[in-house]
Design brief:
2 copies of one chain form a homodimer. By secondary structure, the first copy, chain A, is mainly alpha-helical. Chain A has 5 helices and 3 strands. Chain A binds a DNA duplex (30 and 30 nucleotides) through helix 2.
DNA sequence: AAATAAGTTAACGTTTACGTAAACGTTAAT
DNA sequence: ATTAACGTTTACGTAAACGTTAACTTATTT
């Protein structure tokens, strides 16, 4: 059992390569709610860590912290009416995500096409102009 | 032949559901370079329009305008050395895009898992509590 | 040609997501 | 018991990506 169950703010900051300020900011806007020691220092549970990980994934994908909040909060709804609302919202998000994957595939195709053209162009140029020595 | 070849700023703004200000801003930072009429008003060619489309796709995908600039500029390199640099850069971008697709798939799985759990939970609650009429 | 609509630049305002610094308390190491 | 090293709050600063308003010019409509 190598898994730690508690983390300090700088441990998490280092692990995820972000600043402590960023983590504090996420708490400030209610994205994280770590416990505190008697000395008032933050202690992050494994759940907190998992949540942070999710937040950062969302960020890499270009979601705003508001959008991320809406997604991570899906984990803790409990009232039936809220569950129904959340399900609807979640389905919308899922569609968006699928669209996004599609758009990324298109972008990928575009870049691949450019790549081909550049390689062609380069061949021509090198052919015409003779080799420049390294 | 239904295709227009020139557009005004508000036509494009309407078509893509953005503000004219946004388009002007993109010109301001050099992402677009429309021609002008004698009266100094912007006229956008089909190329300009295509470019704007690309920019907006990049935005939806969460890229910064700087990143987008680097990508759209790949279209117009011509010097051999620049082509080589661009190719390297493009390959990096392609890898990033593939990673991004992976992460989106993961996010999708997460959301699907939450969805399942919510549906289960809802079934339980509705079962226990009897049906509330609409 | 007069009015209305659309476009222009310039400049200041706003939101998001933190960075940075000050001033101070807590924990760990020597 | 002192230092470091690390942590805390408060508050002001900042970059990106526009929004908003003003003051003015150009196009279009009637």
């Amino acid at each position: 059992m190598k898994e730690k169950k508690e983390y300090t703010i700088s441990e998490l900051a280092k692990e995820f390569d972000i600043s402590p300020r960023t983590i504090r900011y996420y708490e400030e806007i209610g994205l994280l709610s770590p416990k505190r020691t008697k000395g008032n220092q933050r202690i992050f549970s494994r759940k907190d860590r998992a949540r942070l990980k999710l937040i950062l994934r969302g960020k890499r994908l270009g979601f705003s912290l508001e959008e991320i909040r809406e997604m991570v909060e899906m984990y803790e709804v409990s009232e039936p009416e809220q569950i129904r609302v959340t399900l609807k919202y979640g389905d919308k998000r899922l569609k968006e995500i699928e669209e996004r994957i599609q758009e990324l595939e298109m972008l990928k195709e575009d870049l691949l096409a450019i790549r081909e053209r550049l390689i062609e162009r380069l061949k021509e140029l090198e052919g015409k102009e003779g080799k420049k020595e390294k």
